[in-house]
Amino acid sequence: MYDPQMREFHGRLARLDRMHRRGFGFEAPGTIGRSCYTRRNRARLPILRPLIVVAASVLVIKALILSQVGALDYNDRLARAADGSLVERAGAYVMQVDPLTAWLGDALREMVPARGRG
Q: pTM higher than 0.70 for the full model?
């Protein structure tokens, strides 16, 4: 016996099988599926975050060294490095004390007890 609804049903099943083999997912209307959790691509510079992390790390390291050795000894060491090779001069330039480093070094000196400073 010929039933047009069965032919339509089998056609839908074949279409679903083809889609499934191609990797399509299926979601029922009104449910939270995979499409709800996909991340939207945001236009951003991928290099910006690592540069900020490196700059913040250098700032914290400078402040820690400044808080531990003191401003006079730190500046003396920078002056000796500035008279050295090209790499030492570049390091002395990067490690110069700026206002943010000085402020952070003072704050760290209060928080972190230094060895040898009574």
A: no
